[in-house]
C-alpha cells in the first residue's frame, strides 16, 4: 500500500509542481516537504504538526485530506518512529527583557539633548543662510480687474524686508504685510521680494490685467 509521502509526491509530479512552488504556496519549508514525501517522520515535528502539513499539502494538490490522514494513521506508529523535536520547537528563542537602568536613562536623556541641540543649530543655519520664506496671498496670478488699484498681501519671515516693485513696505511683527498699489491700463507685473538679514532673496511675481470700463 502506498504511503502518504508517495501519494503526495506522485500527485505533485503528475501536476508538474516543484517543491519550491509547494513551499511558497503552503508556507511549509522545503526540507519538511522532502521529509514528508520520503516518510522520514524522525525528521518531522510532532504528529499534530505533521497532520497539519498533510492537510495543507493535500488540499493544495486537490486530494481528499481525510483519506490522506487515514493512511497516515495506519502507517505511522509513535513507538517505531518517534518524531524528532526540531530545535525551533524544543529551544524557542529566549525573550530578552529590556530593563531601563538609571545609567541607561541618563544616557537616553543626554542623547536626546544632543539631538535637540543639533536640530536647533540646523534650523538656525537654514534661517541665517537660506532664502526667506515668502507667500503672496493676493492677488492671484493672471487676475483680471476693472479697478485702478489692488491690494497686495502675504507673509514672510519676521526679520525679512519686503519690497513691492522695488518699493520697501512695512511688515508686521509676525511677518504679514498688506499694501495697496495702483495699476495702469493693460498688463501689470507686480514683483514682491523678501530679503533676509544675510542678503538672501525670495521673489514672487503676479501678473494683473486692468481693463477699464
TrEMBL record:
Q: Which organism is it from?
A: Candidatus Daviesbacteria bacterium GW2011_GWF2_38_6
Q: What are the recorded GO MF terms, alphabetically?
A: DNA binding
- Looking at the UniProt entry, the stretches that span the membrane are 105-123
Domain of life (superkingdom): Bacteria
Its recorded name reads DNA-binding helix-turn-helix protein
Does the record carry Transmembrane helix as a key word?
A: yes
Query: Which InterPro entries does UniProt cross-reference here?
Result: Bact_Cytoskel_RodZ, Ig-like_fold, Lambda_DNA-bd_dom_sf
- Give the matching Pfam families: Glucodextran_B, HTH_25
**Keyword annotations from UniProtKB, A to Z:** DNA-binding, Membrane, Transmembrane, Transmembrane helix
